[in-house]
Write a structure and sequence with these properties.
Elements (H helix, E strand, L loop, with lengths): L3 H11 L7 H17 L3 E2 L2 E2 H17 L36 E4 L7 E3 L1 H5 L4 E9 L3 E11 H8 L21 E5 L6 E5 H4 L5 E6 L2 E2 L9 E3 L14 E5 L19
Parallel strand pairs: 3-12
Antiparallel strand pairs: 1-2, 3-4, 5-6, 6-9, 7-8, 7-12, 9-10, 9-11
Bound molecules: the ligand Nc1nc2c(c(=O)[nH]1)N[C@H]1C(S)=C(S)[C@@H](COP(=O)(O)O)O[C@H]1N2 and molybdenum atom.
The ligand Nc1nc2c(c(=O)[nH]1)N[C@H]1C(S)=C(S)[C@@H](COP(=O)(O)O)O[C@H]1N2 binds next to β5.
Length: 261
């Protein structure tokens, strides 16, 4: 069995680097500049100046973020099943029935546990939006599930006062970030809270009108059409609200942490 890191590194080689400007920067800076970049301190796999650029990117994107700006939606006739892409951290078929979702916030002494019926009890939303992979393909997919913002509002998870009700509009009343991971923690994503609470961010239990298969992330996955596909975590085991910027599987390999497009 190859280790997770082997798989990730192999996959990384295959991937285009379209989402950030390593190629462009290197070409502009020329060989001398490239040498300079290569000798800078590194965080993750990116030389520091590039990391700084992505962080600047994130600050600008967060400042300009509007929850009313929606990703494109498509007619039902355009919907397809995407290819299975990335298997890190998924459950075995026999374990899907025993699944629980754990949620932690700074206000809670003990994690909350939810089952699929808790998610199904929330307003059922169907959206046809694109799954956009940084590898360079995108497919309109029919997703069904609950809005993450409805889930957070019903149980008072995102707001500092911990009271159920509408999610506050003011950033100051929200925890800054959300971390989501698979049950075994092998795949994980870090999200800015505004994007997590975007109305098109769904906790999704069906794709193409049928319950999720194991390899598409059964029993519950994320879809987040305002971000690249690597943020759409399959098989959510744990959700954590936090004020510290959470680690992210692909950001560790040099991809943009923010990953908006
Ligand atoms: N648990 C988990 N979620 C994951 C991945 C993964 O490897 N493991 N890969 C991501 C990537 S890179 C993409 S493009 C999408 C692909 O979703 P699909 O397999 O349903 O097409 O899942 C994302 N979520
Ligand atoms: Mo992807």
């Amino acid at each position: 069995m190859p280790s997770v890191d082997d798989v990730a590194v192999r996959e990384m080689r295959r991937l285009t680097r379209r989402s950030f400007a390593v190629g462009g920067i290197a070409a502009l800076a020329g060989v001398g500049g490239f040498w300079w970049l290569k000798t800078r301190d590194k965080e993750g796999d990116l030389p520091d100046p590039l990391r700084k650029m992505l962080e600047w990117n994130e600050r600008v994107s967060r400042a300009c973020f509007r929850p009313t700006r929606l990703a494109a939606t498509f007619p039902l006739s355009a919907a397809r099943m995407p290819r299975i892409n990335g298997l890190v951290g998924l459950l075995e078929k026999g374990d899907v029935n025993r699944w629980k979702l754990a949620v932690e916030t700074p206000l809670l002494k003990k994690a909350l546990a939810f089952d699929l019926d808790d998610i199904r009890a929330l307003p059922r939303i169907e959206l046809i939006t694109e799954l956009k992979c940084v590898e360079g393909w995108s497919v309109p997919v029919r997703w069904t599930g609950a809005r993450f913002m409805d889930f957070a509002a019903k149980f008072g998870l995102a707001s500092r006062d911990g009271r159920p009700g509408d999610v506050p509009q003011s950033a100051r009343e929200l925890f800054r970030y959300v971390s989501m991971s698979t049950p075994n923690q092998k795949y994980y994503v870090g999200l800015d809270v505004e994007s997590a609470l975007h109305p098109q961010t769904l906790l999704c239990y069906e794709m193409d009108g049928a319950p999720l298969t194991v390899r598409h992330g059964a029993p519950l996955r994320l879809t987040m059409p305002i971000k690249y596909g690597y943020k759409s975590l399959k098989c959510i085991g744990k959700i954590r609200f936090t004020d510290e910027r959470p680690a992210d599987f692909w950001a560790k390999y040099g991809y943009d942490w923010y990953a908006g497009h």
